[in-house]
Amino acid sequence: MRIARFSIDGTVGFGVVEGEPTDEGGLRLDIIKGHPFAEFERSGHLVPLSEVRLLPPVLPSKVVAIGRNYAEHAREMGNEVPDVPVTFFKPSTSVIGTGDEIRYPSISSDVHHEAELAVVIGRLCRDVPRERAREVILGYTCANDLTARDVQQREKQWARAKGFDTACPLGPWIETQLDPADLAIMCTVNGEQRQLGRTSEMVRSVEDLIVHITESMTLLPQDVILTGTPAGVGPVRDGDEVAVSIEGIGTLTNKVVRRG
């Protein structure tokens, strides 16, 4: 099931995305009563997806991100795979949705794309055992862990490099019925392929990451885990269109603009 968060005529809500782009009439949104983090009903009120604005699929209290979770990416950055996951945060103010603009930060001249599988948490959880990790997941979406690489290299903490406004595009929706173990993940810039990998190349699985994170902190519904990026990261510039596509989910697309 594909669950989208949307705005139409000033009203914000959730809906289930039905159909395929090739269908007559294209994709449609069945607006739901309630929200997807509890029991909900479909209204049966169908709206063409083209008539709504897709918003970030969730509003997380925190985005917990994992670095160096693909061995080839760690090597391309001159690093070894760490003994324990490298964990950092992206603030909620960095989150944007598909179609929103990535605002190039004034503190950097070298922002890089990082295509990632994002895990959306569906229920409050802490100290989750590995065998129950899937139970706390609502679904999965595409993410772009944008990084001001020059800032990251000169500052010991990654907060500014990874947490600037618009540094965390998410979308286009949440796919709830998906096995994340072996999915193709790709990033293109202006239609040119930059990254291509598979989630099976992750050093630590989704389940392992949930166990590791919840050993130390409580995750809330709508929180997001970024699972790391495959090799091939590179710069984006003013005017570029960046697209992250993940098998079984869809494509997250954003344009880069110089911050005014």
**Considering the protein shown, what is the CATH homologous superfamily of the largest domain?**
Fumarylacetoacetase-like, C-terminal domain
How many separate helices?
A: 4
Instruction: Using the CA coordinates, give the radius of gyration.
Output: 18 Å
> In oligomeric terms, what are we looking at?
single chain
Low-pLDDT regions = none
Question: Averaged pLDDT, please?
Answer: 96
Structural class based on helices, strands and sheet pairing: mainly beta
What is the CA–CA distance across the termini? 39 Å
The helical percent reads: 10-25%
Number of strands: 20
Determine the strand fraction and express it as a percent band: 35-45%
Pfam families: FAA_hydrolase (PF01557), Rv2993c-like_N (PF10370)
Organism: Streptomyces zhaozhouensis
GO biological process, one term: carboxylic acid metabolic process
Protein name: 2-keto-4-pentenoate hydratase/2-oxohepta-3-ene-1,7-dioic acid hydratase (Catechol pathway)
